[in-house]
Amino acid sequence: MNQPIGVFDSGYGGLTILREIVRKLPQYDYIYLGDNARTPYGTRSFETVYQYTLECVQHLFDRGCRLVVLACNTASAKALRNIQQLNLPVLYPGLDGPGLDGPTRRVLGVIRPTTEVIGNYSTTRQVGILATRGTVTSESYLVEIEKFFPDLAVVQEACPMWVPLVENGEYASPGADYFVKQHIDRLVAKAPGLDTILLACTHYPLLLDKIRQYAPAGTTILSQGGIVADSLAHYLSRHPELEAQCSQHGRRTFLTTDSTDDFDRQATVFFGEPICSENLAL
């Protein structure tokens, strides 16, 4: 029976997470679902993000996924906790098991794995978060980092133009320099002693060269892909009963709620290899 690991994002950015997961754990089957027809999530309300995310998670469960990773910071910030608290078999009788916190189906996010380790990279104990407005407003990173590293001073900066720059293919253009420098300067002004910057949006790794160019010399820039991949590997090793249910044929399936032609062209940039997707009508 095909029981892939599901990876969900509001659009393309989660492919930078999936890319690192596949690199770390190539043996598993994966289904990636990008809700491109309803992106961006970052400007939407908590309730809307929750409803959209729940629909997509339910579809991945219907496709046989026992484990779903929300490879989207906004969905992780605005929807993950509420989804984890649901008893999905009651809401959807076709599902088995006692719910998402039971032994048969799990939903994980990208915020906790990152916040569990971020303090390990900082010597000055000052770190910066670059994210969408929705993630910044949720304050999820502030709350989670406080649990693991209460000694850290954390500042945030919303970068509303960065996702459009990336999705319009302008991430390497001279026009991107203004917006990257602007937000880096604002972040550093809030904490001149910061030595670590977390890219808390899965689109931002495509701007990594420019971010390094304008960040203070010696600053550690953290992308989430490798961190999440390591965390998933550890999670599967700690939960052998769930790991045994994940099929291992090295297959990858890509779904989009919008145009497959547009998705395939853009997704290839994020994932790093050619992609052929299927359309999903929610």
Description of the structure:
This protein is an alpha/beta fold. Helix content is about 45%, strand content about 15%. The chain has helices spanning about 15-25, 45-60, 75-80, 80-85, 90, 110-115, 135-140, 140-150, 160-165, 175-190, 210-215, 225-240, 240-245, 260-270, and strands spanning about 5-10, 30-35, 65-70, 105-110, 125-130, 155-160, 195-200, 220, 250-255, 280. The strands form two sheets. The chain has a six-stranded parallel sheet with strand order 4-3-1-2-9-10, sandwiched between helices. Strand 1 (about 5-10), helix 1 (about 15-25) and strand 2 form a beta-alpha-beta unit. Helix 1 (about 15-25) crosses helix 12. It is globular and about 55 Å long. Residues about 90-105 have low confidence and may be disordered.
Task: Please render the helix and strand layout as text.
Blueprint: E1 5-9, H1 14-24, E2 30-34, H2 46-62, E3 67-70, H3 73-78, H4 80-84, H5 88-91, E4 106-108, H6 111-115, E5 126-131, H7 133-138, H8 140-148, E6 153-158, H9 162-167, H10 174-190, E7 196-199, H11 208-214, E8 220-222, H12 224-238, H13 240-243, E9 252-256, H14 260-271, E10 278-279
Parallel strand pairs: 1-2, 1-3, 2-9, 3-4, 5-6, 5-7, 7-8, 9-10
Feature tags:
282 residues, alpha/beta, 6-stranded parallel β-sheet, 4-stranded parallel β-sheet, 14 helices, 10 strands, 44% helix, globular
